[in-house]
Amino acid sequence: MELLKKRICETGQVIGDRIIKVDGFLNHQIDIALLNEIGKEFKARFVSSQITKILTIEASGIGIACITAQYFKVPVLFAKKNEASNLDKDVYSSEVYSFTKDKTYNVQVAKKFLAPTDKVLIIDDFLANGNAVQGLLDIVKQSGAQTLGVGIVIEKSFQQGRKKISDENIQLESLAIIKELRQGQIIFG
Amino acid sequence: MELLKKRICETGQVIGDRIIKVDGFLNHQIDIALLNEIGKEFKARFVSSQITKILTIEASGIGIACITAQYFKVPVLFAKKNEASNLDKDVYSSEVYSFTKDKTYNVQVAKKFLAPTDKVLIIDDFLANGNAVQGLLDIVKQSGAQTLGVGIVIEKSFQQGRKKISDENIQLESLAIIKELRQGQIIFG
Q: Cα angle at B30 between A161 and A100, to 5 degrees?
């Protein structure tokens, strides 16, 4: 998605060879007009899917999921992150390790909001090591629902996320794929 | 806002005399069509204001703020919650005590995203004790920007939030005001 890549180049901040900060338009300040273009692009890429629900994870995924959901006309469900383990019987949960924060979260979704008949599109801002998406895939599996696709705004393809998801044989669409961060430069794949 | 009150009555779960759970449409699963009506209503109520930015707080405020921002054609900025105190010189921060979680958070916004020329609309899902909104008002003050309004989806008027904000002489609009929760019944104000 050229508009997105252009914005990443113009305002993204490269830190070392692994981190790109996009807090100016995606995950702290949010450019809603750009998010609308992102939503339309996800709709175009998952066009044949009979999505019934968009699943994301707090916090950065929520805005993207809500704007995107307007084009699919389905509800959004966002998984909650808890630091403590919680054995609540009314939730599906999965443990997710965050490299950014060096913490393991217990990610949870209330059982009543995922039915075996649901066809789920998972949306998130970043795909890096893939742990968050794997946690969400795990939750969908527990519910008996089906994940029809994973839509990512920015993928860092030099990390392991894609491989983990490809193993699941699910349509994965990343709107910008960064294959390398080198000396402050962003190299798209 | 009648549509919202109707939904609260139909699907809200009253717990004791202080808690109303609306996780079916507002803060876990999100009804995007309803959020669009909420966004339009905020636009109608803050019609004369020259809003330049919508400020909210993660996580439940983000979806509401993003959908609402489409009607104001301004960016969203969401404050981040950190448990640890953080003396980062590049952020405005304010301490916020959460009754729900019995924790004090350090709420932060990067300085570069709030300018003294900004006219801010604060949006959140609930107004109860008002601590979150007070933290956001404090952050806007630190930046030299001006808060033109506070838009709340559900206010529990039997708690102290409105009084704290009224003292600031800022336009406060709550789309549903609950004055009492009694024996499982919701009494609107």
A: 30
Calculate helix-pair angle for A32-45, B61-72, nearest 10 degrees: 110
Query: Which residues of chain B make contact with A109, given a CB cutoff of 8 A?
Result: 28
Return mean pLDDT, chain A. Answer: 95
pLDDT reading at B82 higher than 90: no
pLDDT above 90 for B86: no
User: In residues, how long is chain A?
Assistant: 189
Q: Which pLDDT score is estimated for A85?
A: 64
Note whether B30 contacts A80, CB cutoff 8 Å. no
Its pTM stands at 0.97
Based on the number of CB atoms within 10 Å of its own CB, is A157 exposed (0-12), middle (13-18) or buried (19 or more)?
Answer: middle
Q: What are the pLDDT digits (tens) for B5-24?
A: 999 999 999 999 999 999 99
Is A113 an 8 Å CB contact of chain B? Answer: yes
CA distance B155 to B161: 8
Place of tokens 């969401």: B78
Instruction: Give me the residue label for tokens 């009150």.
Output: B5
**CA atoms within 13 Å, Cβ hemisphere of A129:** 11
Return the closest-CA partner of residue B22 out of B83, B57, B54, B63. B63
Cβ atoms of A58 and A82 closer than 8 Å: no
Helices (H), A12-156: 32-45, 60-72, 131-143
Nearest CB to A76; choose among B24, B32, B74: B32
- pLDDT of the residue at B37: 98
The single-letter DSSP state of residue B44 is H
Distance of CA B42 to the CA centre of its chain: 12
Q: Strand ranges (DSSP E) for chain A?
A: 13-15, 19-21, 29-30, 53-57, 76-82, 91-98, 103-110, 119-127, 146-156, 171-182, 185-188
Q: What ipTM score was computed for the predicted complex, to two decimals?
A: 0.96
Between the alpha carbon of residue B31 and those of residues A61, A66, A68, A95, B124, the distances in Å are 16, 9, 13, 27, 16
Per DSSP bridges, beta strands B103-110 and B91-98 are antiparallel
- Cβ pair A24:B113 closer than 8 A: yes
Token code pair at residue B101: 């979680």
Q: Please tell me the predicted confidence (pLDDT) of residue A89.
A: 81
Residues of chain A with C-beta less than 8 angstroms from the C-beta of B82 = none
